[in-house]
Amino acid sequence: MKIDILAFGAHPDDVELGCGGTIAKLISEGKTCVIVDLTKGELGTRGTDETRKEEAAASAKILGIVARENLGMKDGFLLNSEEYQMRIVEMIRKYRPEIVLANAIDDRHPDHAKAAKLVSDACFLAGLRKIETISEGEMQDVWRPKHIFHYIQWRDIKPEFVIDISEHLEKKLEACMAYKTQFYDPSSTEPVTPIATKDFFESLTYRAQDLGRLSGVAFAEGFTTERLIALKNFEGFVL
């Protein structure tokens, strides 16, 4: 299957929080997207791995992605190991994306930065012909994405570019709130966590609004890039 964007998250909900608006925008423009969660988020204080699975499926339906997969890696103990690299290589070769979106390069949760490096390394390895992978009984062709972009999560990393999500913020928020066990719910009896507060939920809007203010749009999501981006011309800018 050939898709446009393959988005990785260390945990279910990472992608929605970091770049859900961008994915909603790209899908509205006819692009195809698949999300791959590396872990089940089984160490999360609230909910269970089963509720996270159900919530991830509901969020995927809201966003309109082609497919969602979970690699079942160990939550809290991600390693940049050959085993984990090869699982991601198989996903890259299976979906053959032009663009990969990955976790923040530095963040409060140690899995996020580890996932960023793990996915980045796997993108390189996926393009090496002497690394052989088999999926569904058939040898996979090599594939290396053209771009790897890292979304921004808890920490206030300065973006190298932003995507205008002004018409898609509500879809992002709806996809995030599909994770009912994880975020703010005044009726919940589960322990309060840093992401289960009203302030955190509101921050999704005011961070997007601030990035929009700085870039001249209503709402935006920020990204960092691993290499210099070349533009063909000045078309496509929001002026």
**Helix and strand sequence:** EHEHEHEHEEEEHHE
Helical proportion? 25-40%
Largest sheet: 7 strands, mixed
Mean pLDDT score? 96
- Global morphology: globular
Strand order of the largest sheet: 3-2-1-4-7-9-8
Helix count, per DSSP? 6
Structural class: alpha/beta
Kindly state the number of beta strands: 9
- Quaternary structure classification: single chain
Spell out the key features of this protein:
239 residues; alpha/beta; seven-stranded mixed sheet
Write the layout of secondary structure elements.
Elements: E1 5-9, H1 14-28, E2 33-39, H2 49-63, E3 67-73, H3 82-95, E4 99-102, H4 110-125, E5 134-135, E6 138-139, E7 147-151, E8 161-164, H5 169-177, H6 198-215, E9 220-225
Parallel strand pairs: 1-2, 1-4, 2-3, 4-7
Antiparallel strand pairs: 5-6, 7-9, 8-9
Helix pairs in contact: 1-5, 2-5, 3-4
Report on this model:
- The chain is an alpha/beta fold.
- 36% of the residues lie in helices and 18% in strands.
- The chain has 6 helices and 9 strands.
- Strands 3-2-1-4-7-9-8 form a 7-stranded mixed β-sheet, sandwiched between helices. Strands 5-6 form a two-stranded antiparallel ribbon.
- α1 (14-28) packs across α5, α2 runs antiparallel to α5 and α3 (82-95) crosses α4.
- The protein is globular.
- It starts with a strand and ends in a 14-residue tail after the last strand.
- The model has no long low-confidence stretch (mean pLDDT 96).
